[in-house]
């Protein structure tokens, strides 16, 4: 199953995600035709169970699509829609179709008004908000976690963008929610932040692989002093460092995906997000060192990927935020030694 899904996604994105499409998206144009192909293939429903209208692909496999999307620089909320549909299905809410996105909802206030619930507050830096049909988030009502499905057309958006030109809008919420838009779901605090960090880790791992591939190809093609620059020891050292960082990032991200739904999820995500974020800085910097001036030009693909990983490393918690969580968990661990803590696959994250 995994090979079939990944092969299909690779073919679809390879054929339809081009440098020109990424340029057009960075200029503010939503690639509607690409989304239509993604929906036709059903990739956005991979994590949702069959009884809810999805495909019921195991989480670790479905989340592998996020790494592939990151490797192609997909300028659409595929990762966010995967997570949103899975949460809605888990809460028993109908899947609305269309493009969905996610946001951390701790800033929202929920109040009971008669038989309904009123939501108010502001969601900040919501990925692809203006290109989405709904924002799915988690908020608290009477001490219980609730899944919210907020129609974007009912919100007031303040447009903004990240380094790569992708929408990162603020959304002012002032809505009465119906039964189809809110449902209880027992989730620990910080779940949405962890899910967002997971998909950003996977996307970074994929984008880093592309950055490495571009750098190796350029080092083999670019001739200086009568030979390819990849023959020089300094460039070889750069590439070796990049390869190590990229491999470590993929392993960390895939371990976090494999831990989805287990007690060790919070710790695995903390390790993955901090590791991939650290690698994004190193790999991106060395890639531009290897490429020189061409790496910054609009016509060359590299900048689309380095800008993405540099933006993603700051979303849903920075390396500093997640390493603090790891530190708290280590200090509160009942294990006798630190070694036992880091090798215990059942270890749980400490409450922040």
Biggest sheet: strands side by side, in what order?
Answer: 1-4-5-8
The total tally of domains equals 2
| Shape field | globular
What proportion strand?
A: 15-25%
The main β sheet shows up as: 4 strands, mixed
Radius of gyration: 21 Å
CATH topology of the largest domain: Butyryl-CoA Dehydrogenase, subunit A, domain 2
- CATH top level assignment of the largest domain: Mainly Beta
Q: Estimate the mean pLDDT confidence.
A: 94
Write the H/E string, N to C: HHHHHEEEEEEEEHEEHHHHH
Give the N-to-C terminal Cα separation: 37 Å
Main structural class: alpha+beta
User: How many individual helices?
Assistant: 11
Count of individual beta strands = 10
Q: Which regions have little confidence, pLDDT < 50, spanning 5+ residues?
A: none
Name the assembly state: single chain
The CATH fourth-level homologous superfamily of the largest domain: Butyryl-CoA Dehydrogenase, subunit A, domain 2
Structure, described:
This protein has helices spanning 2-16, 19-26, 32-41, 59-72, 78-90, 191-221, 233-258, 265-291, 302-312, 319-331, 338-343, and strands spanning 100-104, 109-113, 116-127, 134-141, 144-151, 156-158, 168-177, 182-184, 223-224, 227-228. It is of the alpha+beta class and 352 residues long. It folds into two domains: 2-184, Beta Barrel (Butyryl-CoA Dehydrogenase, subunit A, domain 2), CATH 2.40.110.10; 191-343, Up-down Bundle (Butyryl-CoA Dehydrogenase, subunit A, domain 3), CATH 1.20.140.10. Strand 9 (223-224) and strand 10 form a beta hairpin. Helix 1 (2-16) runs antiparallel to helix 3, helix 1 (2-16) packs parallel to helix 4 (59-72) and helix 4 packs across helix 6. The longest helix is centred in the middle third of the chain and has 31 residues, at 191-221. It is globular, with a radius of gyration of 21 Å.
């Amino acid at each position: 199953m995994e090979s079939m899904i990944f092969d299909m996604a690779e073919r679809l994105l390879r054929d339809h995600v081009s440098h020109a499409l990424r340029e057009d998206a960075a200029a503010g144009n939503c690639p509607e035709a690409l989304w239509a192909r993604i929906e036709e293939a059903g990739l956005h429903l991979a994590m949702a169970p069959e009884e809810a209208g999805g495909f019921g692909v195991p989480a670790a496999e479905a989340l592998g699509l996020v790494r592939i999307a990151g490797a192609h620089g997909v300028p659409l909320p595929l990762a966010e829609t995967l997570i949103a549909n899975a949460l809605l299905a888990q809460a028993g809410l109908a899947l609305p179709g269309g493009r969905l996105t996610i946001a951390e909802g701790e800033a929202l206030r929920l109040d009971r008004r008669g038989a309904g619930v009123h939501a108010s507050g502001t969601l900040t830096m919501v990925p692809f908000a203006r290109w989405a049909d709904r924002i799915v988030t988690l908020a608290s009502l009477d001490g219980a976690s609730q899944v919210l499905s907020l129609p974007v057309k009912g919100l007031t958006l303040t447009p903004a963008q990240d380094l790569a030109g992708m929408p990162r809008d603020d959304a002012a919420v002032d809505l009465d929610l119906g039964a189809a838009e809110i449902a209880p779901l027992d989730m620990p605090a910080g779940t949405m932040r962890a899910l967002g960090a997971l998909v950003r880790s996977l996307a970074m791992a994929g984008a880093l692989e592309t950055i490495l591939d571009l750098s190796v190809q350029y080092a083999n093609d670019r001739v200086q002093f009568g030979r390819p620059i990849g023959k020089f020891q300094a460039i070889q050292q750069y590439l070796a460092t990049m390869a190590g960082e990229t491999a470590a990032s993929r392993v960390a991200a895939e371990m976090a995906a494999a831990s989805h739904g287990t007690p060790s999820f919070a710790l695995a995500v903390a390790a993955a997000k901090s590791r991939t974020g650290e690698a994004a800085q190193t790999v991106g910097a060395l890639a531009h060192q290897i490429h020189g001036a061409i790496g910054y030009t609009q016509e060359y693909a590299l900048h689309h990927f380095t800008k993405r990983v540099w933006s993603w490393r700051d979303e849903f918690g920075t390396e500093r935020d997640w390493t603090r969580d790891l530190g708290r968990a280590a200090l509160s661990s009942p294990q006798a030694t630190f070694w036992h803590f880091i090798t215990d696959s059942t270890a749980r994250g400490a409450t922040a």
